[in-house]
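--- STAGE predict ---
source: upstream dedup step, 1 unique chain passed
mode: sequence only
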Amino acid sequence: MRITEKSVLEYDSITDDKKKKGTWIEYVVVGYKYWIEVWIGEWVEVWIGEWIEVWIGEWIEVWIGEWIEVWIGEWIEVWIGEWIEVWIGEWIEVWIGEWIEVWIGEWIEVWIGEWIEVWIGEWIEVWIGEWIEVWIGEWIEVWIGEWIEVWIGEWIECKWFTV
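--- STAGE serialize ---
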């Protein structure tokens, strides 16, 4: 398998070090081989074997094997194997395997496996397995398994009996 390597580099004549100034391109291509590093103004580094890291102004790093992390201004990290965490200004974290947690300004957390908790301004928590608790201004709690308790200003509790 033949390796093609091209470099357009600038070296410091005193230290004999490779310096990243101006524009240079260094890449290695071996058919379906390992990595490509490209420097253009700032630099763009791309690793195709396992991950891809790209620098544009700030940088973007993407790891395709297990997770993807992307930096744009702040950063966005996404892990597709088990969970997805995304940072935009604050951050949004989403775990699809078992639960989903989402942060937008405050945060919204949602667990689909057993319960769902949602925070919007105050918060709303909902448990679907056994009970449902909902907070809106004050709160409303509802238990569906045996009884239903509802808080509206004061509260109302209702229970059903099977004969």
